[in-house]
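go over this:
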Amino acid sequence: MIPTITGFKASPDRGRGLARDMRVRWALEEVGQDYDVRLLTFEEMKQPAHLALHPFGQIPTFEAGGVALFETGAIVLHIAKSYAGLLPDDPAARARAVAWVFASLSTVEPPILDLQNAVLGERDKPWTEARMPLVKERIRARLAQLRDYLGEAEWLDGGFSAGDLMMVSVLIRLRASGLLDEFPTLAAYVARGEARPAYQRAFEAQLEVFHAASQV
């Protein structure tokens, strides 16, 4: 059965590859699995039909073979375990790749999202200006740790894995802030991820949705 995922009918990221369905698209492209996309408006995301799949009324969701999932980390791991290409065969390396999926979402992404919330949702608050340097320093601390671990390696642990897919997807969210440019090693790491043919196919597919929506 071809998986069906959900995405924004009109994405707020304006086709920049930041919407979270991009991570799922990329994973499916990496493993060579065709998929269908059900595009939703913000109103449709809050309706019972979608809430039955995603209790928080967000995207993406994933449905295939009787399995219905929400949360990108869970979806990407399911894809990685169901199809060859995103997890190593060696059990220890496989476990480490899974650990990096969790690290990207639990350790690296939270301070980045804190910055985005401050910029997009709290810019008019009286505490934002004073708080912003602290938010950025928390991000820099995480990036420094990641840079030190990565060193001169191409990927986090041997070959490209689901862990790299998720980490690159998280780091891309920093591009507009300029913080990623302070860490050339990590900027190059992200560029390697974006250069992968599977990423390019996923990006073009998501960008096409934005172009279609903007013409309506």
About this structure: The chain is about 55% helix and 10% strand. The first strand starts at residue 4 and ends at 8.
